[in-house]
Predict the 3D structure of the following.
Amino acid sequence: AFAVSLLSFFFFFFFLVFFLMLRRPPGSTLFPSTTLFRSPHHRFLSRICARFLMAEFVVGLRGGIGTGKSMVSDLFAERGIVVADADISARTVVEPGKPAYLAIVDRFSEKILKEDGNLNRSKMRDIVFADAEQRQFLEQQTHGPIIEDLLHIIRQASSAYAILVLSSGVGKNPMMQRLLVVDAPLETQIDRVMRRDNNTRS
């Protein structure tokens, strides 16, 4: 009787996932980003996936630019904790040959590339900050793949819990069981960003 009940549960679960896949909006992914958790069935699915398909416990790590999120996440990684970092995933999904990379090059031509064939992220930033339409295009090409990459890392986590580092948004989202916020004085943030990007204060 127990085996029959267990089999029925898994049948119902996978049927539910299949049903929600059919109902998801065109062009969206099965595991939508937290900014896309708008419909009730997507929010419900996110909780199911967080329970059955991801690390059992996910600690979110947030903080403003230059606050030291990478330093904190490195401390966890040194202790064997799996870290899924949105900034790293953002670079991963635009590596040469990836769908997002090809779409971006098709849109902006090879002028957007460095000599080694990788995207010139500095040029890309200048373009998207100056043009809202181009920024929207870039987000459409990268947003979904970034979320998928983060979820893949979390699902494969072998540590007791996983760290999810997000560089945008505020508060805890459905993927997190706890939220750790990193902060730093404003002058420290400015100094770190200047040294990181080799820029002046102006």
